[in-house]
Amino acid sequence: MSILKTIQSPADLKRVLPSQLPELCEEIREQIIGTVSSVGGHLASNLGVVELTVALHYLLKTPADKIVWDTSNQAYTHKLLTGRREQFHTLRQYGGLSGFCKREESEYDSFNAGHAGTGVSAAFGLVEAREQLKQKNKVVCVVGDGAMTAGMTLEGLHHAGGLGKDFLVVLNDNQMSISKNVGAISAYLSRTISGEFYGKMREETGQLLRKIPHIGEDMQKLARRAEELAKGAILPGLLFEELGFQYYGPIDGHNFEHLLPTLENVLKMKGPVLLHVITKKGLGYEPAINNPVWFHACPPFVRETGAPAKKAARPSYTQFAMDSLVKLAREDQRIVAITAAMCEGTGLTGFEKEFPDRLYDVGIAEQHAVTFAAGLATQGLKPVVVMYSTFLQRAYDQVVHDVATQNLPVVFCIDRGGLVAEDGTTHHGAFDYAYLRHAPNMVVMAPKDENELQHMMKTCIQHDGPVSIRYPRGVSLGVSMDAVPAALPIGKGELMKDGSDVAIMAIGVSVWQAMQAAERLTKEGISTAVVNARFVKPIDQDLIVDVAKRVRYVVTVEEGCKMGGFGSAVLEALSDARITDVTTKMLGLPDWYIEQGPQDLLRERYGLTAEGIYQSVKELVGKAPVTKQDRFAVGASLDHLPHGDEQGS
Ligand SMILES: Cc1ncc(C[n+]2csc(CCOP(=O)(O)OP(=O)(O)O)c2C)c(N)n1
Ligand SMILES: CC(=O)[C@@H](O)[C@H](O)COP(=O)(O)O
Ligand SMILES: [Mg+2]
Questions:
Q1: N or C end of the chain, less CB within 10 A?
Q2: How far is the CA of 274 from the centre of ligand 3 (A)?
Q3: What is the mean pLDDT of the chain?
Q4: In this predicted model, what pLDDT tens digit does every residue of 557-611 receive, in sequence order?
């Protein structure tokens, strides 16, 4: 009889005998491996926290007590124990369970996440809310060693340590971010784990801490004293102690005999406590233990071998971008690349291999990455910040204040621009055009395909100022490649096809969709032009105005939020040129957070496929044109005017 199947909520878990918990963990691992092998997901991190999650739910009274999962890509066991086992097969699919914590999904999810380093701050918000509301619940934050390198985590610890309220932070240390964790904090944690002297003393104090049945204030002091003695000369945990946290551990995060009594005791302690727990990424599935990087967030795979279930049809845009960068770096010694803990995802591994001294992995520290790049640029280097669109959001002020105001030649390679699929809301690259284009000095571009991508990479490197290039997640189009990349003129678009009724002005991967739609429309008698804008900023006003003068309708297409993005830039250009006799429509992402789902499905849903663009144009053209006289006639009813995104003039 399955134990897992008897658990509808954490209350049921409490009926399981402690001796049965390892068996339950095996069932949980089985379920996670089975599901992730068929739908993909964050396997390695999840397999590492099975015992820790079971122990926390075993001891806490959730949902009154709160667990905040930093990043929350490790919350699968939490989902399985909190009433979501039966839907677990829908994980990360359209309409299914999220791969992350979502308050909309369950009362057991205390805070939404997806980006790393928010856990401590959010959980401390729950702590202070409890104090303000005079409640009694416990608050626990589980944060990884990778997320410990994020500035926000340190800001949160600093605040919480200073105020001294009851708060448990569990540091889940598997010595890995996505790749091997980096930097001084990671080295510090490793020393804490591996110190030989401390290891022995830790064992003794750990035993003491586990033995104390119901730890009272005096006993707590005794345990602390013993712990202090154990610290001896090397003072493990000193960093956290100095930040106002009582530090305990490290303990084995896979052993219930350590986990349960230790957690029970630290949960009773007063003030901020940090418990250091050591876990292994991928535990329970050999291929994931051997390759935790690939299994951090993997596509569907063959259970028996761990091999990917499908082979990619063509190289990704990421690969083309980074191959271009490597080629350019061979010729230009000034180029250095910067990643914020995303060397593999951003495709920088080839660069690292060839130029190990010119690649900086700064940890999960996007803000630092950008300002660090600005510093490098002041000295004549050519820093290339390679980052997912969604993570660059965190460094908005650094882009504006540290790079753009000084007009520094920092290149931003923005990967995962647009819809990213299964990671959903927190990971879609929806906002970059909008959050970059309003910064004076910024150049913002996006290629229509991988060939243009290589030319744009060259353009970026040549440009003497802040410049960004964004490309999507996924496989490239398979177009033929020019032998040599050539820089493009900044701010110049490309007229792909002329027409006299409608102009579709598109950017990035939407351009080829627009071309297909235009060809079909033209065949049906609606003469349709297509502009590949190439640049969101500076936008090619001359081309846009020239084409707009020839047509009656202008449709903009972008895989980004409509508000403030590319379409807005086109409308501004038309407005500046006083083009008032075209009817316009913007296609792009609406003013809500986009759900998870396959890219194709989401593109279809938001009208960004060739079919969607075609339908939008047909609908627009089918409507009675709105004339200037109609709109401005005194007393004229506005009911006939286009609604929503359409802006008739
Ligand atoms: C702000 C931000 N940058 C980058 C990422 C990508 N990312 C997701 S998980 C992860 C590693 C997290 O490591 P750790 O906190 O140790 O958790 P583990 O997966 O090891 O449990 C990274 C870099 C992110 N989610 N958020
Ligand atoms: C980086 C990150 O947040 C991952 O956890 C995410 O799931 C990666 O997805 P891709 O790198 O496949 O886009
Ligand atoms: Mg880790």
A1: N
A2: 16
A3: 92
A4: 999 999 999 999 999 999 999 999 999 999 999 999 999 999 999 999 999 999 9
Q: What is the DSSP letter of 6?
A: G
DSSP string over 392-417: HGGGHHIIIIIIITTT---EEEEES-
Helix%, strand%, coil% for the chain, nearest 5: 45, 15, 40
Question: Does residue 223 surpass a pLDDT of 80?
Answer: no
- Sheet containing strand 139-144, edge to edge, reads 66-69, 139-144, 167-173, 272-278, 246-252
- The finding on whether 361 has its CB within 6 A of some atom of ligand 1 is no
Percent of the chain residues topping a pLDDT of 90: 88
Q: And the tokens for 377?
A: 């640029």
Q: How far is the CA of 424 from the centre of ligand 3 (A)?
A: 22
Cβ-based neighbours of 402, under 8 Å, separated by 6 or more: 370, 371, 374, 408
| Separation of alpha carbons 161 and 157, rounded Å | 6
User: Distance of CA 154 to CAs 106, 123, 243, 246, 248, Å?
Assistant: 28, 13, 9, 15, 18
Whether the CB-CB separation of 235 and 261 falls below 8 Å is answered with: no
The position carrying tokens 């994020």 is 150
Instruction: State if residue 413 touches ligand 1 by the CB under 6 angstroms criterion.
Output: no
Q: Is 198 annotated as a binding residue?
A: no
Task: Give me the active site residues, please.
Answer: 281, 366, 394
> Do 556 and 508 contact (CB within 8 A), yes or no?
no
Decide whether any atom of ligand 1 lies within 6 Å of the 146 Cβ.
yes
pLDDT tens, position by position, 493-545: 999 999 999 999 999 999 999 999 999 999 999 999 999 999 999 999 999 99
Query: What is the spatial distance between Cα 259 and Cα 278, in angstroms, rounded to a whole number?
Result: 10
Going by pLDDT thresholds of 50, 70 and 90, the confidence category of residue 298 is very high
Residue type, 508: G
Are 247 and 143 in contact by the 8 Å Cβ rule? The answer is no
Which residue's alpha carbon is at the smallest distance from atom 7 of ligand 2? 297
CA distances from 543 to 93, 515, 531, 540, 565 (A): 41, 17, 8, 6, 18
Computed from CA positions of residues 80, 82, 85, 87, in that sequence, does the dihedral angle turn out positive or negative? negative
* Residues in the ligand 2 pocket, defined by CB under 6 Å: 42, 73, 297, 345, 416, 420, 423, 473
Q: Which amino acid is at 549?
A: K
Please answer whether residues 384 and 357 qualify as being in contact, where contact means their C-beta atoms are separated by less than 8 angstroms.
no
Within 8 A by CB and 6+ apart from 135, the residues are: none
Distance from residue 303's CA to the centre of ligand 1 (Å):
24
Residue appearing with tokens 């647009």: 418
Query: Which amino acid makes up residue 223?
Result: A
Is the per-residue pLDDT at 217 higher than 60?
no
Is residue 625 pLDDT above 90, yes or no?
no
Encoded amino acid at 614, one letter: Y
Please tell me the pTM assigned to this model: 0.92
**Is 145 one of the annotated binding-site residues?**
yes
Task: Name the residue type at position 164.
Answer: G
| 383: exposed, middle or buried (Cβ count in 10 Å: 0-12, 13-18, 19+) | buried
Domains and CATH numbers, the chain: 4-8+41-195+236-290 (3.40.50.970), 317-470 (3.40.50.970), 494-632 (3.40.50.920)
